[in-house]
Amino acid sequence: MTVKGVILDTNAVLRFITGDSIEKCQKVSDLLDKSDCIVPIEVLAEAVYNLEKFYKHPRQLIAAEIRDFIDINWGILPLIKVKNSAPLNFISVCFGALLPLPAC
């Protein structure tokens, strides 16, 4: 099976979300507009981890940033619900992303 598209890494996702490098943010934005992009769940999990641990974004902001990133590009996001006091780590975010959504 051949997968066609551009695979985005964590740095690309972080540059797009944080805008801390305007030039890199614009490059990622252009790439998202012009290409079929693939973002592995591990990349999203690592982005969540970095936004919390290194950028010190609060969880509510991280959830909104990831949701907006997904909505802009794919229109759907498997949501991960965690307690505000629970520490996040890479593995728990990956596993949480794989859990089925609760029925509404």
How many H/I helical runs? 5
Poorly predicted tracts of residues: 75-84
How much helicity do the residues have?
Answer: 55-70%
Beta-strand percentage range: under 5%
Q: What spatial order of strands do you see in the largest sheet?
A: 1-2
Overall domain count: 1
Main beta sheet strand tally, sense and closure? 2 strands, parallel
The counted number of beta strands is 2
Computed Rg: 14 Å
What is the residue-averaged pLDDT? Answer: 77
Structure description:
- The chain is mainly α.
- The chain has one domain.
- Helices cover 57% and strands 4% of the residues.
- The chain has 5 helices and 2 strands.
- It has helices at 10-18, 22-34, 41-53, 59-73, 90-98; strands spanning 6-7, 37-38.
- It has a two-stranded parallel sheet with strand order 1-2.
- Helix 3 crosses helix 5.
- The longest helix is centred in the middle third of the chain and has 15 residues, at 59-73.
- The protein is globular and about 30 Å long.
- The model is unreliable at 75-84 (pLDDT under 50).
Throw out a few tags for this protein:
104 residues; 2 strands; 4% strand
